Amino acid sequence: MITAAAAGADESPLAIICGGGSLPFAVAETVRKQGREVVLFPLRESADTQRLAAFRHHWVRMGQLGRFCRLARQEGCREVVLIGAVTRPSLWQLRPDASALLMLPRIVKFFRGGDNHLLSHVAALLSEQGFRLLGAHEVAPEILMPEGALGARQPTPDQYQDIEYGLDFLQAIGPFDVGQGVVVTGRHIIAVEGVEGTDAMLDRVADLRAGGRLRSSGGVLVKAPKPAQDRRIDLPTIGPQTVERTARAGLSGIAVVAGSTIVAEAERVGEAADAAKIFAVGMRDQRNTP
Fold first, then answer.
1. CA distance 70 to 82
2. What is the DSSP letter of 45?
3. Which residues, in sequence order, are CB contacts of 156 under 8 Å at separation 6+?
4. Measured between alpha carbons, how far is 167 from 94 in angstroms, rounded to an integer?
5. How many angstroms from the chain centroid is the CA of residue 174?
6. DSSP-assigned states of every residue in 65-129
7. Rounded to whole angstroms, how far apart are CA atoms 184 and 1?
8. pLDDT in tens, 193-220
């Protein structure tokens, strides 16, 4: 893995392909404070527009490989980071430009698999075009979840057992490239993240509880990267919104893998966890080390 120091050795502007949420801007601000220029490439289907004015940027659509490569080269970019929430499109939702159309038979094959399969092939395409793909945590290591609790609360011994159970489960299903999150209560798996994402899974748990179909109290949201996942892309992520939905679902806390999970606005996560009277903890996990 490339170290943060090595990643910062390139003085060319850093290209950041931006999905939704605040993380792309947090990474961009961190890199800029380090003295390196950034150029943002927000995805029209996903990116937040409110903070773009503060950065040099070029809009792109999913499938516009040629447009991105041309603009990134014009800006002098040699390294690329992909960060932010993106809803996986169908093939029919892509807007391929001429360059992408030439690769369409390959791109069709990329979609025959899970998210890690798809994104790993996207990373390979960027490499073939002469760009070096970096993980957001390599250029902004402070966005990674530390070991321990962000707020005042710690899991109980029973909750630690649920966390370990959840991590075992995610390790077992990881090769199927399903999802990165699971909800556990009393060593019972009550929800598994699929294509809907973590927020929608937590909303589903809240609906089950409100409808009386989930009678056990408490529970833990557990998130972990998939085994053999490319750590440069799609690491598990939590933020203040995760805390809000976890509390709304009636769960007791959040547990993620320290050093392998991105945290949006860590200070706010700790404050939100304390306000909601739940825990948010980073766990050391030897099951799935890179």
1. 17
2. T
3. none
4. 34
5. 16
6. HHHHHHHHHHTT--EEEEESB-PPPPGGG----HHHHHTHHHHHHHTSS-HHHHHHHHHHHHHHT
7. 32
8. 988 889 999 999 999 999 999 888 899 9
pLDDT at 11: 84
Return mean pLDDT, the chain: 87
* Cβ atoms within 10 Å, residue 288: 17
Separation of CA 154 from chain center: 24
Instruction: Return the bridge partners of 148, or none.
Output: 282
Question: Which CATH number is 4-141 given?
Answer: 3.40.50.20
Buried b (16+ CB within 10 A) or exposed e, 99-123: bbeeeeeebeebeeebbbebbbebb
* Spatial distance between the Cα atoms of 155 and 149, rounded to a whole number of angstroms: 9
Tokens of 244: 């809000």
DSSP 106-118: HHHHHTSS-HHHH
For the chain, what's the residue count? Answer: 290
Domain ranges, ordered by start, for the chain? 4-141, 144-283
Cβ atoms of 202 and 138 closer than 8 Å: no
Tell me what pLDDT residue 72 has: 96
Query: Mean pLDDT in runs of 10 for the chain (290 residues)?
Result: 46 92 91 96 83 92 87 96 77 66 67 67 84 93 95 97 96 88 96 91 95 89 88 88 96 96 93 98 78
Q: Which pLDDT tens digit goes with each residue over 254-279?
A: 999 999 999 988 999 999 999 999 99
CATH of domain 144-283: 3.40.140.80
pLDDT tens sequence across 224-245: 998 877 788 888 999 999 999 9
Q: How far apart are CA 148 and CA 153, in angstroms?
A: 10
| Rounded Cα–Cα distance for residues 67 and 196 (Å) | 29
Structure confidence at residue 164 (pLDDT): 96
Phi, psi (rounded to 5 degrees) for 209: -70, -40
